[in-house]
Amino acid sequence: MASHGRRFALSKLRRATRNSLVEQFAPVLGGIWIRWLQIPSETTDLRERLVNLIPEKQQKLKEIKQKYGSVSLGDTTVNMAIGGMRGIKGMLWETSLLDAEEGIRFRNLSIPECQKVLPTAVPEGEPLPEGLLWLLVTGDVPTKDQVSALSKDLRSRAKIPGYVFDVLNSLPKSAHPMTQLTTGVMALQTESEFQEAYKKGVPKTKYWEYTYEDSLNLIARLPELAAFIYRRVYRGGELVSRASDLDYGANFAHMLGFTDPQMHELFRLYLTIHSDHEGGNVSAHTVRVVGSALSDPYLSFAAGMNGLAGPLHGLANQEVLRWIHEVVKEIGTHVTTEQLKDYVWKTLKSGKIIVQMRRRRSAI
């Protein structure tokens, strides 16, 4: 109870700090957030929408720097630095916010709210991941037409060059899937439009355009890349081709080998609610840090995946599953609370740890 009380108090303190900062920056930030949420855009082209949004956003950031550049964001302690920048406010992000009591919000919308307002593939179905992508990038709740156009755009970008599969096939199948994923992303990096444009001396004002192209190309290709690795490692290399008529989530499920429409719905929901996880966990923070050096999206994303592969971050899910398999192997599937408690103590007394399925934060 005492531990829960401390967590609740800490959560209240975080919310109070956040609310104080929002209130402080409201004169600058409030207007644009309200306009993004209240004025729908008619264009079905995401890039065209950004052409209109980015100049306004750049102006707002300039105003923040001018008016609030010297405002302190809080104190920093030695323990915070030693703990991987834990608790340090060191970046500005808007796409999502994770609260211990409220759960995650995407552009201030909770998961149930996203399920209500985002377009779906089937009536009363789960939201399409493309809709969440549009929401994250623009702040707008997209229309069905906008999501359909984005889905079509992603399908047009999804083809992976054959040499990428050659690179992956040169690795032993025993290589960890995360190692193979990072390798595949790095192989795709030769396709970077940002890198090519930078070589030619593109002006800074145009950086975002090539970053956008790289980002959407990478997002479009990740499902087939991940599915290829999964089928290669766990399904004997028997591959399932991309479908030309399925949306992003359903196509990923299809390439993994799932044909049940309910599995397609599950993947739509799963990809939607995992599309963003605040800005300060290890992988997201790493992508930002590497990207700040003008490394292209492929390089930045690969770096983030290497962070995600750590046992205190994304790999924790694997460690939890492995431990559950050990529980089942030793005491079966019908486990009482006392049996599980005894097994937990046995694990701890053996010198091992039990990893919680939570993502370590590095810079918030």
Structure description:
- The protein is mostly helical.
- 62% of the residues lie in helices and 3% in strands.
- The protein contains 16 helices and three strands.
- It has helices spanning 2-38, 46-68, 78-82, 111-117, 129-138, 144-156, 162-169, 177-188, 193-199, 207-234, 248-256, 261-273, 282-291, 297-308, 315-331, 337-349; strands at 96-99, 103-106, 109-110.
- The protein has a three-stranded antiparallel β-sheet with strand order 1-2-3.
What's the quick description here?
With 364 residues, the protein is mainly α. The chain has 16 helices and 3 strands.
DSSP strand count: 3
Low-confidence stretches: 1-14, 26-38, 357-364
Q: Please count the helical segments.
A: 16
Q: Structural class of the secondary structure composition?
A: mainly alpha
What is the CA-based Rg, rounded? 22 Å
Question: DSSP strand (E) fraction?
Answer: under 5%
> Would you tell me the overall average pLDDT?
86
Helix content: 55-70%
Strand order of the largest sheet: 1-2-3
**Termini separation (Å)?**
26 Å
Overall form: globular
Largest sheet: 3 strands, antiparallel
What is the H/E string? HHHEEEHHHHHHHHHHHHH
Features:
364 residues, mainly alpha, three-stranded antiparallel sheet, 16 helices, 3 strands, 3% strand, globular, disordered N terminus
Write the topology of this structure:
Elements: H1 2-38, H2 46-68, H3 78-82, E1 96-99, E2 103-106, E3 109-110, H4 111-117, H5 129-138, H6 144-156, H7 162-169, H8 177-188, H9 193-199, H10 207-234, H11 248-256, H12 261-273, H13 282-291, H14 297-308, H15 315-331, H16 337-349
Antiparallel strand pairs: 1-2, 2-3
